[in-house]
């Protein structure tokens, strides 16, 4: 539980995007909505009894939760930076 709070402190370090607004970042916007769905699933699983299908689903969703911050966000930010650099070079 402590690591779920600490990961929020690491969030500014993992956001490598040049644009800070989600309005012009469609990949980050779609990944963010997937994160929201994952968060809701984790909330629902947290209220369930500790039984076989809920344990495995909780572990998978927890890996996706931390993977969003540590893997997906930096990769998507780098991809969007690359795309924005290509489009800005073509417009000159």
Overview of this structure, please?
- By secondary structure, the protein is mostly helical.
- It has helices spanning 2-14, 26-46, 52-91.
- α1 (2-14) packs parallel to α3 and α2 (26-46) runs antiparallel to α3 (52-91).
- It is elongated and about 55 Å long.
- The model has no long low-confidence stretch (mean pLDDT 88).
List descriptors.
92 residues, mainly alpha
- Proportion of residues in extended strands: under 5%
Could you say which overall geometry the principal axes of the C-alpha atoms support?
elongated
Structure summary, number of beta strands: 0
Annotation field: number of helices:
3
Q: Using only CA atoms, what is the Rg?
A: 16 Å
Instruction: Sketch the major β-sheet.
Output: none
By secondary-structure content and strand pairing, the structural class works out as mainly alpha
Which oligomeric state applies? single chain
Helix content: over 70%
Ranges with pLDDT <50 over ≥5 residues? none
Distance between the termini: 49 Å
Mean pLDDT: 88
Give the topology string: H per helix, E per strand.
HHH
In short:
With 92 residues, this protein is mainly alpha-helical. It contains three helices and no strands.
Topology diagram in text:
Blueprint: H1 2-14, H2 26-46, H3 52-91
Helix pairs in contact: 1-3, 2-3
């Amino acid at each position: 539980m402590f690591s779920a709070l600490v990961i929020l402190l690491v969030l500014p370090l993992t956001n490598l995007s040049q644009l800070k607004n989600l309005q012009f970042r469609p990949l980050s916007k779609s990944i963010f909505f997937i994160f929201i769905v994952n968060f809701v699933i984790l909330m629902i699983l947290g209220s369930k009894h500790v039984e076989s299908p809920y344990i495995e689903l909780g572990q998978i969703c927890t890996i996706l939760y931390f993977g969003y911050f540590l893997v997906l966000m930096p990769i998507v930010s780098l991809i969007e930076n690359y795309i924005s650099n290509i489009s800005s070079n073509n417009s000159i």
